[in-house]
Design brief:
Layout (H helix, E strand, L loop, with lengths): L1 H9 L3 H42 L6 H14 L2 H17 L18 H13 L1 H17 L2 E2 L1 H8 L5 H27 L4 H15 L3 H20 L2 H23 L4 H25 L1 H11 L5 H6 L2 H15 L3 E2 L1
Antiparallel strand pairs: 1-2
């Protein structure tokens, strides 16, 4: 009898099988989206190399000119913007038969000023998560003779050309919200709000392929997921843009002329204020948060099905490997 009950518990319900099928389809779509982006950037680099090679075939500094062309490709957001746009168009086509693809921009409850203030404060406080992960992670790896400073610098680099500024501040955030709070989260929402928010946040963190940035992206992704779920993806896009534009490139531009000490004082002062404010607001709203969790957590085991699906595991392993590749010996 016990064996029969155990077998019955192991059998998946039709809804659980549908959840597994859905998450696999979603992740396959994201991987194809990444493939399109990567192919576009590589194609642009190849075209630039061929162009330089043809124009300067007999030039004595051909190698240096090729290196300069590659560096220009890396610093430019041109190819990334084009590839990203192509990838988003592909995802709309890939999920065209899915009901959720027609509801990406649906509005839920109106955003009140008090709610926006709370959400923005909470979101910006996650910057200290990135800082703690950076300092703690680097110190930990240094103890074993390794460094993740390259990943930290990659995550904190600011734009040097207009196309990269356009990508980092506006086009990138819009695309990421469409992918993770749109196609991913909306595609899994019928299996539970909490499950969908957590899954989209984990995939969003892994997507960055950067161990330190990934930690920040997971925490930020949970806030953005809640915003898109309860208000609108347009509000999630707005908050994401505020972070990347105002507290990213614009902040770097405004404070760039200050000495390093003043920059640090401003940085720690602003983000510490956000963190303290977030802690206070979380304490004040703890009952609302607890009620939201209890009302929206899923008791049907969907999260186990989703987080243990083959494609979910493969996605996480692949991007973890990319993150690990950024670790270097001292």
């Amino acid at each position: 009898m016990n064996k029969i009950l155990k077998i019955k518990r192991q059998l998946k319900t039709p809804d659980q099988l549908e959840a597994k099928k859905q998450v696999n389809k979603i992740i396959i779509g994201i991987l194809l989206f990444e493939l399109i982006m990567t192919a576009g950037v590589l194609l642009d680099a190849i075209i630039q190399i061929i162009r330089v090679a043809v124009v300067s075939m007999n030039h004595p500094d051909l190698e240096q000119q090729v290196d300069a062309a590659l560096m220009e490709c890396l610093n430019s957001g041109r190819a990334t913007i084009i590839s990203l746009t192509a990838g988003i168009i592909f995802l709309f086509f890939f999920f065209r038969k899915q009901d959720f693809s027609k509801k990406l921009f649906d509005k839920k409850q109106p955003m009140k000023a008090s709610a926006f203030f709370f959400i923005l404060t909470l979101f910006m406080s996650t910057q200290l998560v990135f800082l703690a992960a950076s300092v703690g992670g680097e110190s930990l790896f240094n103890m074993f003779g390794y460094s993740i400073m390259a990943e930290i610098e990659s995550a904190t680099n600011t734009s040097t050309v207009f196309s990269m500024f356009l990508y980092a501040s506006f086009i990138g955030p819009i695309a990421e919200e469409l992918v993770f709070r749109g196609f991913v989260m909306r595609g899994l929402a019928r299996f539970g709000k909490i499950t969908a928010i957590l899954c989209s946040a984990l995939l969003f963190g892994a997507f960055h392929g950067n161990l330190i940035q990934g930690v920040f992206a997971v925490t930020a992704g949970m806030v953005l997921g809640y915003v898109a779920m309860e208000y609108s993806i347009l509000w999630a896009i707005a908050i994401h843009v505020i972070n990347n534009f105002i507290f990213g490139d614009l902040w770097a531009y405004v404070t760039g002329g200050f000495n390093e000490t003043l920059q640090l004082i401003l940085f720690y002062g602003v983000y510490s204020s956000f963190f303290v404010g977030a802690v206070i607001l979380l304490v004040l709203k703890r009952k609302e948060i607890r009620n939201y969790w209890n009302n929206n957590k899923n008791e049907n085991g969907y999260y186990k099905i989703i987080f243990t699906s083959l494609w979910f595991i493969l996605f996480m392993i692949l991007h973890l490997a990319l993150g690990i590749s950024g670790i270097h010996k001292l």
